[in-house]
Structure formats: C-alpha cells, structure tokens
Amino acid sequence: MDYAHFVRQLRFVVPGGLATYWIGTTEKIAEVWEHESGLARPLFLTSAGAGILTVTLFLYVLLFPVIKGVPPNYRSWRKSGELSSVIPILTASIIIGWTFLAYTLGRYTTLGYVKGTMGSLGLYALAFGIMGLLPAPRIRRP
Hints:
Elements: H1 3-23, H2 25-35, H3 40-68, H4 83-108, H5 112-132
C-alpha cells in the first residue's frame, strides 16, 4: 500500500467528511426527498443521476487498463479513442451533479445557498477522496 497516496487522499476525505457531517448534508438530502415537491425532486434526481454517472465513469477510467489490457496514456487522453469521449462526459457529469445538488440544497432546505454550496462541495470532496483511495491497477507496457 502506498501510504503517501493514502495521506494525500485524506486532504479530501477529512474536510469533505467533516463538512458533510457538520452541515448535515445527507439529512437535508433526505428532507428534500421526503418533504419537498415541485421541482425539488426532479432537480435532486438529476443531481443523483449525474453523481451515479460520475462514479461509474470514474471507475471505468480507473479500470480501463484492466478491461483493455493496455496501459492508457492519461496525459494524452485527447488522442485516445475511448478516453477522448469519456473524459468530457465525466467532466460534464461532475459539473451538472454538483451544481444541481448545490442549488437544490440552497433553494429547498433551510441551509441557504452558501451552506448548500458548502454541503455540496463537502459531499463531492468526500466522494472523490474515497474513490481516489481505490488502488489503480498496473499494466505492464508490451
């Protein structure tokens, strides 16, 4: 296990977890789902769908070397047939998911927009920190 990598990921996990806990992001999300109507649910569902897509695409990019059996060149992702289409979709799903979650928390809960944005940032930092802890498979170059 690479302890240096583990410690670097804690930069995201610890603040993200603390912000999520302190603000009560998960409780507020449950509140929106249970008690709100109108646009609140569709906005949250869009945010959740984008979040699921983000996690799925992130895992795909992480497992890309195992699936293809070829080490990808992440630095030149624009030249890769698959990565050149996956990376922009991944980026868009992050932006859409985070923005819709921040707006939903700000508009439809008692948090307001500042704490709603902080709650959304905390949850995303926590999720990315945890996903970053997954070990990346190594494929030897032929």
